[in-house]
Amino acid sequence: xxxxxxxxxxxxxxxxxxxxxxxxxxxxxxxxxxxxxxxxxxxxxxxxxxxxxxxxxxxxxxxxxxxxxxxxxxxxxxxxxxxxxxxxxxxxxxxxxxxxxxxxxxxxxxxxxxxxxxxxxxxxxxxxxxxxxxxxxxxxxxxxxxxxxxxxxxxxxxxxxxxxxxxxxxxxxxxxxxxxxxxxxxxxxxxxxxxxxxxxxxxxxxxxxxxxxxxxxxxxxxxxxxxxxxxxxxxxxxxxxxxxxxxxxxxxxxxxxxxxxxxxxxxxxxxxxxxxxxxxxxxxxxxxxxxxxxxxxxxxxxxxxxxxxxxxxxxxxxxx
Length: 320
What we know:
Elements: H1 26-32, E1 42-47, E2 54-58, H2 77-95, H3 97-103, H4 150-156, H5 164-179, H6 184-199, H7 205-218, E3 235-238, E4 243-246, E5 249-250, H8 262-266, H9 276-293, H10 297-304, H11 313-319
Antiparallel strand pairs: 1-2, 3-4, 4-5
């Protein structure tokens, strides 16, 4: 204890054989157990039966840190945890109920259903009873903002750390760039038109066919009249010179003609969705087209798979 009577825990000084020992007075014992600063918020969790002092824990340094409660089976670990959080919620709600309700969230993962009682922890709580065996359990609500967070999206998609997660990060960055523009719909259409121009000037038919498969996942499958469309209907491939032809003319040699093709004009029918998951899937395909065009490693692996219509399994999770 210092000169001000404050107790400092730890092992700065160790007792030696021959040292004098003193029995603490009641006042000193209170000082040892006084863990709350004068201006701090105290959580009164118990009262000593024999010494008659309150056992109080501080909010600062306890609730905002990592803690562990150890004990044998039946020693009261769950009760201690329940008492700490029940007192914390009650104290903070009493201080400013409006601010606490608006800004504070206490999330408890209860694997043994120990804290689901009506008045346990707090009567003002929502219990989600989850099930992995079937779809009868509750669903955890996810805000729209969660689909812009790479960590959440990576977990939902079960994305691998080295390849799929970096891809998703690029797709999310592209999506954010588009939606932060003055006219997201027009911006997205211009991106796709640029990709169409590059595809129609390619000399690799295998990659070009792969990219057209991806375009079919992005662009509408019907025209303005509701009739099914084929993006390559007015195109043909010339094997000798390895180029696309439109109306008998080579597009790589005449790039100005690309704007006359059906696929280029059909881009104007592309619309951003109100469904965030649908938009995420679309931008995943758009980013995938970018990756194939730039010969990124993951895209090359996909080309070797021999399945032109496949796309990484982690993205398929969003389409379910």
